[in-house]
Amino acid sequence: MPGKLVRSSRIGQALLGDPSDGIDPYLPANGNLGYRVSRYDLTLEYKVSTNRLAGVATLTAATVRTLGRFSIDLSSSLKVERITVNGKRPARYTHRNHKLNITLATDLPAGGGMTVVIKYAGNPKPIRGQWGDVGWEELTEGALVASQPNGAASWFPCDDHPSSKAAYGISITTDSPFMAVANGVLKSKRTKAAQTTWVYEQIEPMASYLATIQIGSYTRKTLGTKPVPIHAVVPPRLRRNLDLDFAKQRQMMEVFVELFGPYPFPEYSVVITDDDLEIPIEAQAMSIFGANHCDGTGWSERLIAHELAHQWFGNSLTLSRWKDIWLHEGFACYSEWLWSERSGGPSAEAQARKYYGRLASSPMDLVIGDPGPKYMFDDRVYKRGALTLHALRKRLGDNDFFDLLREWTREYRYSSVTSADFTGLAGKYSPQPLNDLWHHWLDEKPLPPYPVF
């Protein structure tokens, strides 16, 4: 969900590219046709005191048809200074309404390589839409990025669609008192004069809205080393609270690895900002929490589990179209219930009955399998999505249900996925058709009877 302030698509087969693929109707202004990006290399400099960002973005892509003109998503708040395509200046370009339109002097053939280098600068700010302001945001002292669903273009040129997944190299230079954190593994850190350059490498394919940079007066602490390294990046004043609020982070990881299969990235980090955040922020191999989520009371345990679960359901497996958002939020919500069940709290059955009662007294005016852009972050999508999984678990039994989840994360690792992919896979585990379950829970507005099997 945004932060505060049909067919499957495997690796290398991005959903967008060819005109026949179309654009996601939930975000018709986002995404671009005619090419597929395989890698972004971002070389950035950021001045905290003036909120000034200067960058050079290199997009490595392949054309999927003869290409004479193409577009890239980039906020109109950032000024383009220079563009080259395969080392040559384009015939012309325009930049308005968060879209960079480039016309080439010579057409590129289908299936050809394309390297686009864009130099740009400006004062980044969030992109405003019906989900609020998303993207780059200034903090009291530093900056954060919260891009879901359409804020990535607030800080770098991109093909801003969730099915367009690529590898990333991110170099960020900022004032030396500050720490800069980005997706992937830290490859190097260099300090020169009053500035430090942090270089990160994210080799696993990543959707643009999951790319992030977090800058602040932070210290780093390792919370665990098995089954993967787990780090916390936190203001010094919150170190004591960190030991209380995030004490179970390692145990959560162990439980989810058991239930869902291997963690899909080399390491995991939580960042706690010095400012309060309305809700936590999802990013690939990273979750971002506000100071209010680290107050020493432990009230955020449910949210900590939710964000960790997104590393499997949302980041490794990423929806192809926003209409299938229950594949992210229903799974992450159900993971909260599973963690509660495994850690001595209320069982998933107790949680399911509790939230079923709340849904039964709520308006039944949306279809969670296609809620529409206005309601795609509605809490009913989260809770009814979780209840859908609970109904499936009761139908299949625990052994087959968790075998299904592990096969789901294994077979579609790093891919773009659809509801049809999951329902099709689930059919392997049931001797009886599951069509009635999917129809009643995903495709109808009325709440089905509570699942009893």
Biggest beta sheet attributes: 7 strands, mixed
Assembly state of the chains shown: single chain
Read across the widest sheet, the strand sequence of neighbours is 4-7-2-1-11-14-13
- The overall number of domains is 2
List the helices and strands and how they pair.
Blueprint: E1 35-47, E2 52-63, E3 67-73, E4 78-85, E5 92-96, E6 99-108, E7 113-122, E8 127-129, E9 132-139, E10 142-146, E11 165-175, E12 179-182, E13 185-192, E14 195-207, E15 213-216, E16 219-224, E17 230-234, H1 239-245, H2 249-260, E18 268-272, E19 281-283, E20 286-289, H3 301-309, E21 318-319, H4 326-342, H5 348-360, H6 379-396, H7 398-411, E22 416-417, H8 419-426, H9 435-443
Helix pairs in contact: 2-3, 3-4, 4-5, 4-6, 5-6, 6-7, 6-9
Question: Can you describe this structure?
Answer:
By secondary structure, the chain is an alpha+beta fold. It has two domains: 1-215, Immunoglobulin-like; 318-443, Neutral Protease Domain 2 (Neutral Protease, domain 2, Orthogonal Bundle). Helices cover 24% and strands 33% of the residues. It is built from nine helices and 22 strands. The protein has helices at residues 239-245, 249-260, 301-309, 326-342, 348-360, 379-396, 398-411, 419-426, 435-443, and strands at residues 35-47, 52-63, 67-73, 78-85, 92-96, 99-108, 113-122, 127-129, 132-139, 142-146, 165-175, 179-182, 185-192, 195-207, 213-216, 219-224, 230-234, 268-272, 281-283, 286-289, 318-319, 416-417. The strands form six sheets. A seven-stranded mixed β-sheet has the order 4-7-2-1-11-14-13, with no helix packed on it. A five-stranded mixed β-sheet has the order 16-17-18-20-19, with helices on one face. A hairpin with a 2-residue loop joins strand 13 (185-192) and strand 14. Helix 3 crosses helix 4 (326-342). The radius of gyration is 22 Å and the shape is globular. The two termini are 32 Å apart.
